[in-house]
Amino acid sequence: MSKFWSENTKRLQPYVPGEQPKFSNLVKLNTNENPFAPSPLVLQAMHDVVNGDLRLYPDPNADNFKQTVADYYGLQKSQVFVGNGSDEVLAHAFAAFFQGKQQLLMPDISYSFYPVYCQLYDVKPRVIPLDAQFAINSADYTGAVAGVIFPNPNAPTGCILPLAMIEKILQANPDCVVLVDEAYIDFGGVSAVKLIADYPNLLVVQTLSKSRSLAGMRVGLALGQAALIEGLERVKNSFNSYPLDRVAQAAAIAAFKDDGYFRSTCKKVIDNRIWLTKQLRQLGFEVLPSYANFVFACHVEKAAEEIAVFLRQHGVVVRHFQQARIDNFLRISIGTVEQQQRLITVLKELLMK
Ligand SMILES: *Cc1c(COP(=O)(O)O)cnc(C)c1O
């Protein structure tokens, strides 16, 4: 605490990201990064723009990247917004649509950055409990004033909400923005992008950090009707004209163009998820059905915290949340075959002795 801080700064409780260890021999399954490297074409595109032109500012509107995304999804360029990671895109959405308002509806178990942005942008959340199976019940999402926000698939549960249920939420809240955070949609879900034409209140947010292996480049995007995107542009151009640097724009374009690589790595993650789920169940874990690049699992006997500590001591990092309802669960990111085998070997040491 310092006398120099504003009242708002004193009140903040910042988001705490998962550990990024400084040594590399760990099996890192704690922050849902992609276990596979970016496409070779992405790395080549990045190399190609590392030259004297870096003295020049990047395209402030990232027009080529926006057009690439628009073509990919069959949208207009005016329906695409891009930012420095989807966390920044989410922040601008809070400022553009929710700031200063009451009744932002969100699940009780969800992405823990949302309550942080509520504090930063003076938004009053109304937290709605997931049901006993950790599913969103769309009928609970009525009476929003600021808007509605949830990840689909949800994090950290991995559960998916079918598009028909998302439509019910959109129809029940026509006068505010319903933000669907699709950070994990490419691992087996169906995107709500196809609903954009029918729903002026729908904003879909995506990231290149998970399914496109570019967490280190910080690229996120939002998709919606042009009026919503224009609102985001107003906020962005009041904050930072150049959120995406030249290298990031080149990487992002190439990541969307190399669709074959994208599909094959997503499939490998899904295959590894199936393997890991089966192995964990054999070891006495209850594993929620996951549509993401992680699983959410709870052991029938051993406490989650004890398991996490043991894994850490043996060089495997997973995520444990000290939060009501889920403090006996572990969120385990999908890794390579080798990483997952190491995890299972260490778990067997703990659970079968
Ligand atoms: C990882 C994640 C994000 C943030 O992604 P970045 O683009 O890396 O900022 C947003 N929402 C959810 C639900 C996530 O899990």
Commentary on this structure:
The protein has 353 residues and is α/β, with parallel strands linked by helices. It folds into 2 domains: 17-37 and 260-351, Aspartate Aminotransferase, domain 1 (Alpha-Beta Complex), CATH 3.90.1150.10; 40-257, Type I PLP-dependent aspartate aminotransferase-like (Major domain) (Aspartate Aminotransferase, domain 2, 3-Layer(aba) Sandwich). Helices cover 37% and strands 14% of the residues. The protein is built from 11 helices and 12 strands. It has helices at residues 7-11, 40-48, 63-73, 85-98, 113-120, 163-172, 226-236, 246-257, 259-282, 304-313, 337-351, and strands at residues 27-28, 80-83, 104-107, 125-128, 147-151, 177-181, 202-207, 220-224, 285-287, 294-299, 316-317, 330-333. Strands 2-8-7-6-5-3-4 form a 7-stranded mixed sheet, sandwiched between helices. Strands 9-10-12 form a 3-stranded antiparallel sheet. Helix 4 crosses helix 7 (226-236). The radius of gyration is 20 Å and the shape is globular. Pyridoxal-5'-phosphate is lined by residues 32, 85-87, 111, 151, 155, 181, 183, 207, 209, 215, 220.
Structural class: alpha/beta
Order of helices and strands: HEHHEHEHEEHEEEHHHEEHEEH
CATH third-level topology of the largest domain: Aspartate Aminotransferase, domain 2
Helical segment count: 11
Strand order of the largest sheet: 2-8-7-6-5-3-4
Coarse shape: globular
Q: Which molecules are bound in this entry? A: pyridoxal-5'-phosphate
Radius of gyration: 20 Å
Indicate the percent of residues in helices. 25-40%
- Sheet with the most strands, sense and barrel status: 7 strands, mixed
Number of domains: 2
CATH class of the largest domain: Alpha Beta
* CA(first)-CA(last) distance: 47 Å
Modified residues (N6-(pyridoxal phosphate)lysine): 210
Catalytic activity: L-histidinol phosphate + 2-oxoglutarate = 3-(imidazol-4-yl)-2-oxopropyl phosphate + L-glutamate
Domain Aminotransferase class I/classII large: 25-346
InterPro entries: Aminotrans_II_pyridoxalP_BS, Aminotransferase_I/II_large, HisP_aminotrans, HistidinolP_aminotransfase, PyrdxlP-dep_Trfase, PyrdxlP-dep_Trfase_major, PyrdxlP-dep_Trfase_small
